[in-house]
Amino acid sequence: MEDDKTGDGANPVLVAEINDVRPFARLLRGIGLKNMATVTVSKAGFEVTVEEVKTLCAIAWIPNTLFQTFEFNEPEADGQGHAQPACFEVSLDALLQCLNIFGNATSGPVVSTFSVGTKRGWAGEGGPRAEGEEGGGAGAGETRGGGGNASKKGRTGMRMSWQGPGHRLSVMLQDDPKGPLTTCEFNLYEPEELMNQDFNQDDCVLYLIMKSEWFRDALADLPPTSQRITLTATPRDRPRPDDELGATMNSNDRRSQRADVGSFAIKAIGDFGSTELDYPNDREVMDKFDCPEEVSFSYHSSHFALLTRALQSSIKICLQIENSGFLCVQIMMPVSEGVAMGGHSGILEFKMHALADDES
Amino acid sequence: MRFRTQVSNVPLLHKIVRSLASLARLCIIRLSAEKVHFIISGNEGKDGVQVWSQVKVPTLFTQFRIESNNDNEIWLEINLDALLKVLKSADSSAGTTNEASRFNSTALSDSDVSIKLNKRPAASGGTGGQAIWVFDIKGTTALGKLMSITHEVNVNVLTKKRQDELNEPMCPPPDVHLVLPSLLDLRNIVSRLSHLAEDVKMSANHDGAMELSVMDPRVEMSMSWRNLHNPAASLPADGEADATPKDKMFSTTVSIKGLLKFLNCHLVGGTAIACICEKHCIIAYVYIGDVDEAGGVLTFFIPAKNYGDD
C-alpha cells in the first residue's frame, strides 16, 4: 500500500465529524445519478456536483451545521505559489457504499414511477445481490426499507478528514463502540470541467415554493409511459373562462378560482391517457408564487424521474424557470434543531433545459 | 443395505440443509452408526468452498438403524434443492413470520419425519432400479389439521472407488485461531463489501484482533474488530512462546462470494471459530449446539486466491 504523503506540519484541509451519517448519506444519495461526483469544500460545507451532459446538473449543498465538528483550512499554495482549490472528484458510489457499511444509511423503498429510474444504476445502490439472501430482515437488500438492520440501534458515526490536494480522502466509521471500526481511503481524481450553467435570477419568469409532498405525489401520479412533462403557470386575475359544456359545477368553479388566484399545472401524456394536476396559488398550497405572465415549458419525463430520490424526506421545493425554459428546482431537507434563521440542513438542486416545441 | 431413522430435530436439520443449499447443488451424506457427515467436495462447491462436517447421530436422529456391507456405512449423494423442499414442507418454523403467509403456507409444524432408504424398481422388471430416500412426514397444517405427506427423493449410492476419492483438503497447521463475532452481523457487512470488490483479505492475530480489508481502484476499506477471543488451541507450545509476537497479523485473501457462502450458515446459529492458514485458506468451524456438548460441527474450507508473489 503506497504511503500517504504525511502532513508537512500543515493543518489538514478538512476534518468533519458527524454522529449519524444518515442525513449526510441522504443528501448524497439524492444526487447519485452518476458514479463520480465533484466535491468542493469550503468553510460553509460541501458542494457536491454531479452532471450528466444533455440531461441535467445536480448539486447537493451540504452545510457545515449538519456536522458536530467541521474544521476547514484553505489548502496551501503549491510549489509555484499557485492557490490550490479545495476541490476533487471522488466515486460517489463507493462513498455511499462505505457510509452504509453497517446498514444504517439506507434509503426507504424507492417509488419511481418512470421505468427509466429503475433501469439506471444509482450510486450506492448497485452491485450484485449476495445469493441465498433470505428473509428474517437479515440485511436483505439495500432498497428494501431501512428495516432489518437499521431498526436495531443503527447510528453510524463518521469522521472524515482530508490532508489536502495530493492526499486521499479518509473516512472512519463506527456503528457500536464495541463493534468493528471501518477505515476507508478514497482515491481522488482531478475534477472534470463542469458546464454547471448558473441560473440567471434576473431572467426568471416563474418562481414558486410549495410543499415537496405535493410535487412528489404529482410525479408519482403521472403515467409511467409518458415521454414529456409540461409545466404551465398562469398569473392571477385572469379573465374567467366560460363554463365548459357538460362539466360539473365543481369543475367550472375550480377553473374560475384558478383564473382568479393563478395556478401551476403539471401535465403528462402517456400511452393510455393523460394526467394533469393543477395547484392554485393559494396560501395553503403555495408558500410563494411569482408569475407575471403565462409560461409553459416541457421537459423529458426521464429527467424528472431523477428527482424522485431527492424528493423523499424533503419538505419544500422551490421551482424557478428562466425565459428560455431553463429550469432550476431546489429541494429543501428538514431543518435540524439549532440551525440559525435563514440557514438550512441541506438543499438538493437540479437544473435542466426545456425541450424545444417539436422535440419529444 | 438398510437404513431407516426418525428425525428428532427437524428445524435443525432444516437449517443445516438451508446453509448447505446455498453452496452447492449436490451433497454427499456419509451415514454411519455414530455420525452423519455432510460433505461438499472440491469440484462441487461454488468458489471452491468445501464443507466437511460431522454431526453426532443423536443430535438429529432417533431410532437410527443402519446396516451395510461397507462397515455398516452408507455413502450417498443427494440433490440439496430436493432435500430442502422436503424439509421446508415439514418445518414451518423457518421463513417469514408474516401472518398472511403463515396461513397460506403448506408447511407443517410439529412434524414427525422418518427417512427410509428404498429402491424404486426398474421399469418393466429389468435389473437396477433407482435408490431413493422415502420421507414420511406427519404433522399439523397451519389451520390445525393433521396431515401426512410422503416424498421420494432420488439418491445416488457411492461406489467404494468414489468414496476413496473423497478426501479432506490438505492444509498446513493454521497460523491463528479466532472466535468470530456474530455471523449474522458479519454476513451483512460482507454482503455490502461485495458491492465494492471481489476479494477480501481476512487477517487476525493472537491478540484478539481481526481485520477484513478490501481494495478497489476507487477506495481501500478495512474493518477491524478488537477483543475477540483466541481459543486456547492456538497458543504456541511452551518454548516457542516468544517466537510469534502477539500482534503479528496473519492474512489470507479469499473471494468475497466464497466467504459469503460460508457466512450463510449463520442460520445454524452456533459458535464459529476461524483458522487462518496464511495465504493458503481459511478454515471455519461452526458448532452445532453447544461447543461443549459437541453435538456436531460444520467445517468450511475457503481457499485463498493466489496472486503469484503477493
Automatic annotation (TrEMBL), chain A:
<keyword id="KW-0539">Nucleus</keyword>
<dbReference type="Pfam" id="PF02144">
    <property type="entry name" value="Rad1"/>
</dbReference>
<feature type="compositionally biased region" description="Gly residues">
    <location>
        <begin position="123"/>
        <end position="149"/>
    </location>
</feature>
<feature type="region of interest" description="Disordered">
    <location>
        <begin position="121"/>
        <end position="156"/>
    </location>
</feature>
<protein>
    <submittedName>
        <fullName>Rad1/Rec1/Rad17</fullName>
    </submittedName>
</protein>
<dbReference type="GO" id="GO:0006281">
    <property type="term" value="P:DNA repair"/>
</dbReference>
<dbReference type="InterPro" id="IPR003021">
    <property type="entry name" value="Rad1_Rec1_Rad17"/>
</dbReference>
<dbReference type="GO" id="GO:0000077">
    <property type="term" value="P:DNA damage checkpoint signaling"/>
</dbReference>
<dbReference type="GO" id="GO:0030896">
    <property type="term" value="C:checkpoint clamp complex"/>
</dbReference>
<keyword id="KW-0227">DNA damage</keyword>
<feature type="region of interest" description="Disordered">
    <location>
        <begin position="232"/>
        <end position="256"/>
    </location>
</feature>
<comment type="similarity">
    <text>Belongs to the rad1 family.</text>
</comment>
<dbReference type="InterPro" id="IPR046938">
    <property type="entry name" value="DNA_clamp_sf"/>
</dbReference>
<keyword id="KW-0234">DNA repair</keyword>
From TrEMBL, chain B:
<comment type="similarity">
    <text>Belongs to the HUS1 family.</text>
</comment>
<protein>
    <recommendedName>
        <fullName>Checkpoint protein</fullName>
    </recommendedName>
</protein>
<dbReference type="GO" id="GO:0031573">
    <property type="term" value="P:mitotic intra-S DNA damage checkpoint signaling"/>
</dbReference>
<dbReference type="GO" id="GO:0005730">
    <property type="term" value="C:nucleolus"/>
</dbReference>
<dbReference type="Pfam" id="PF04005">
    <property type="entry name" value="Hus1"/>
</dbReference>
<dbReference type="GO" id="GO:0006289">
    <property type="term" value="P:nucleotide-excision repair"/>
</dbReference>
<dbReference type="InterPro" id="IPR016580">
    <property type="entry name" value="HUS1"/>
</dbReference>
<dbReference type="GO" id="GO:0033314">
    <property type="term" value="P:mitotic DNA replication checkpoint signaling"/>
</dbReference>
<dbReference type="GO" id="GO:0000723">
    <property type="term" value="P:telomere maintenance"/>
</dbReference>
<dbReference type="InterPro" id="IPR046938">
    <property type="entry name" value="DNA_clamp_sf"/>
</dbReference>
<dbReference type="GO" id="GO:0030896">
    <property type="term" value="C:checkpoint clamp complex"/>
</dbReference>
<dbReference type="GO" id="GO:0035861">
    <property type="term" value="C:site of double-strand break"/>
</dbReference>
<keyword id="KW-0539">Nucleus</keyword>
<dbReference type="GO" id="GO:0000724">
    <property type="term" value="P:double-strand break repair via homologous recombination"/>
</dbReference>
<dbReference type="GO" id="GO:0044778">
    <property type="term" value="P:meiotic DNA integrity checkpoint signaling"/>
</dbReference>
<dbReference type="InterPro" id="IPR007150">
    <property type="entry name" value="HUS1/Mec3"/>
</dbReference>
